[in-house]
């Protein structure tokens, strides 16, 4: 059906919640009418359920090709659709090969055929030995690139140093794409920390100073870039340390193109509440104490943190060492792609946030960051007809049986939340309805220069 309309007494449009009828034609938002408008096409009425712009998650590890036993595009994009996400951006690791060359990127594009339930963009990677290939990689359509300042856990994706970034940043500035940074610097002195089954021992082994120092370095790099006339966009992924917030605020105040994100696990979990030996909670940087969590919420409120993304980073249950509780050996990463909106809404609504705010933090700003805001991130005429229909009052407990990503493990099992995604539309195609996937995979790659 290429011509129809959706209406509700609650629709998020232009920063407001209003009663409206949204007309869809040929995969795009054709017009916005008053609620109850008589039209020549079918009108689906969702009553008081909220019609939001489809979420845009710019931080997802899908791991295909090469590590599809961890996750793949079919299951990851199904989980995204179940979470109201209509577009995501895939990270350049932990797939094989890592997305650091044009050829590797083509392998990834070849692997997505008939597997995408939502639209998908891609980040490339910067490592010490691929600087000369960056132009080709960026011209191939990646939306930006990512580097690590610390061991990534993947041998093929080694960390960069300042000299590597100095070489890369003018190229990235020329293409006007963001440089995403995993901001931890191993400052030493913690090698003697024994990581036991106690979560606090893992927390002690990965202190805030690692993030703080890395972010200070990146502010210095951004200053250098601006002084050189490049002014490269620098972005800090998955911020965990509240002590780095003042550094980020200073960078913004100086007019640097400097942004930062955080994730549901840092905003909804406190280290004091993590049981010993529960490896599903391990991620890097780590989940910190409740006081830190509250400071992150303050930064989301006042804009020091720009948006919220999942950092869905799955692996096999075996790599999580669930049975032994060995935190040191367990792979670090949180799996929760489809639950992000409900998790954040449950916390945010008690802090004065509205679903209009969440649409900004999880759709509008993420689309803008990834360079997708000409087509995604807002319900406006001409944009893709991407919608999430959300029952904000529905209360339930997350169970492993609900999980749509590849392995039915998540640290959120047993957690009570508010808010359920009942329908997801991608470019006007109805792909998810009340726990069922309908039609077939209709998602398509989102390539820079070809949007």
TrEMBL record:
It comes from Colwellia psychrerythraea (Vibrio psychroerythus). It comes from the Bacteria. Pathway: Nitrogen metabolism; (S)-allantoin degradation; allantoate from (S)-allantoin: step 1/1. Catalyzes the reversible cyclization of carbamoyl aspartate to dihydroorotate. Its EC number is 3.5.2.5. Belongs to the metallo-dependent hydrolases superfamily. Allantoinase family. Homotetramer. The keyword Plastid does not apply. This is allantoinase. Keywords: Hydrolase, Metal-binding, Zinc. One of its GO terms (cellular component) is cytoplasm.
